[in-house]
Amino acid sequence: MMKFKSKRFGIRFGFGKRTNNKGTQQDQQQKGLGNSNNNISCCNNEIKWELRPGGMLVQKRQESIGDDLISIRVSTFANFHDLSIEATSTFGELKMVLSLLTGLEPKQQRLLFKGKEREDDEYLHMVGVGEKDKVLLLEDPAFKEKKLLDRNNISASCLTIIV
């Protein structure tokens, strides 16, 4: 069973205060009821929309210069690299930057974030990469094996020439 409070109790303690319908001119302008130009100008603003890479239609954000750069740490087994990159970049673009730092071609790189390997066309901000996050860089095992086989073939060919 539900009990209702009386109106008198609510009014006495400030809940549901009674006001007259007219109010002052200043109150009406604050509520947007008066003949103010502010009311007209706020209605002329158009909302701009954008289509996000995931296919979602959202209200366009304010353009700001320099605020969309994030600092991330890319770790390998040997060392790590701290770098700044735009949050709207893809993992493929990150691989291009890392190829300059590590010497590994983008095809030879595998990037992992939150335990999952990320594709080249995935966007950093869509996956959740933020400021000071860590991305793991691994060398692709197929290329690693090929490099080891090439080294063994070179050393074997050198041995046959010497003998």
Automatic annotation (TrEMBL):
Gene3D superfamilies per record: Phosphatidylinositol 3-kinase Catalytic Subunit, Chain A, domain 1
Biased composition (Polar residues): 21-34
Span of domain Ubiquitin-like: 70-138
PROSITE patterns recorded: UBIQUITIN_2
Start-end of Basic residues biased regions: 1-10
Region listing for Disordered, in residue ranges: 1-37
Pfam families found in the cross-reference section: ubiquitin (PF00240)
SUPFAM superfamilies tied to this protein: Ubiquitin-like
PANTHER family: OS02G0597700 PROTEIN
Protein name: Ubiquitin-like domain-containing protein
